[in-house]
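User: I'm writing a short methods note and want a consistent example. For NAD(+) diphosphatase, I'll paste the sequence; you return only the structure tokens, no commentary, since I'll be parsing the reply automatically.
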Amino acid sequence: MRHAEKVTFGGSALDRVGEIRDNPSVVEFARRAADTRAIVFWRGKPLIDRERPASLVRLPMDHPVLAEAREEPILLGREDGAARFAFDISGWTPDDLDDSTLGGFLDPSEQRHPALDGEMVFAELRRVMTWLNARDAELAATGKAILGWHQSHGFCACCGAPTEIVQAGWQRKCPACKAGHFPRTDPVVIMLITHGNSVLMGRSPGWPRGMYSLLAGFIEPGETLEAAVRREVFEEAGVRVGAVDYLASQPWPFPASLMFGCRGEALSKDIDIDPVEIEDAVWVSREEMMEVFAGNHPSMLPARKGAIAHFLLENWLADTLD
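Assistant:
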């Protein structure tokens, strides 16, 4: 395995069992097997056990909490030969629900279902992603992304009719016009732009105070990774970029992106930001970035752990990008 595949949400080599998704009898057999387990979500939050080390909960398929699910479960894959299904119980409403932080940038709230014991809680994946091992993180990211897609794609984009779940949750079929719809993944470039000993960092409006990260943006139709890197950096920071190469990728289920980490060489250090796109952009030297990562910088926080920006910057500092 390449070092680049060790980014959060990648590298666990989950068997996604694509060969059985279109065979209902085999899927049903897998669902009824004694070693099959359920991965449970509530409003996009996976069920985890906070006992250290924290882990993704795998419930038996006859657990009473699964009765809260309104839709058929999604077949996520197989681990150690046993099937894993994702259940969504978002229809359940906690008695003490405080929705003031739900959907926030970093939701700190946790929800406990009365049918679950111990330290089992629903927690925002962005907050707990670094607590999980590679397999747990991949299962959680996959389940969150596919359930989020179903939530927003219940109607046919061709004719507007309600669609039905098929292929064990990996397709929606329109019974009216027969169109098939598959889960979408939005490609995004995130760029480690360097000039000599410095890296370009940006800040978006609304981010927590002091937070800076690498520039990023969606790839447009008909555009290559390299072209997207050059366009986005120029649009946001006014910096021209020359050579570009690919480094690593990361699934990012917030809600459904695939981040392509790229390295680019700036042709100059002149910055002219677009205030609609970003709030600030600065060049940060390697020595200064080391202070940021050490928590000693007076005004800048490091990129969030678990995000590919943190992974790229950390490996840039250690000279282990390749």
